[in-house]
Amino acid sequence: MGARKRNRANQNKEAKQGQYYAVLRNCPTSPRKMRLVADMIKGIEVNKALDMLKFSSKEASRRVEKLLLSAIANWQAKNEGTRLEDVNLYVKTAYVDQSRSLKRIQPAPQGRAHRIKKRSNHVTVVIDTKNQVEKKEVVLEQENQA
Length: 146
Description:
Elements: H1 3-17, E1 20-27, H2 31-41, H3 46-54, H4 60-78, E2 88-98, E3 102-107, E4 113-118, E5 121-130, H5 132-145
Helix pairs in contact: 3-4
């Protein structure tokens, strides 16, 4: 491995240490259906997102709920001694990437066969903290400029 590649890999590793995320790979649901659920929770506070997923009628919401709980557990592992209630956690990003498709054949009339693609996906959920102090500083700066 070259020096540039090694340095870049170390930078990426350090950047990921500050992030709190969870990844679900090879989920046997269509990416289009999963994106509906993932887009529903983007930018929302974690407890509210969990409630939305729990009471959603979509099948994919159960898997995303479990994934969000995993991301929260990852946050707790990196921040021992900090209470979850004291910190404002929110879903920073939630995105769905297409995974491999299983190709199957379904019998069709007159001896033909139709191709079926059973799609799957990868889901990534990133959570972060909303700092109330930063918001107050921005508001004060705006008032001072006006």
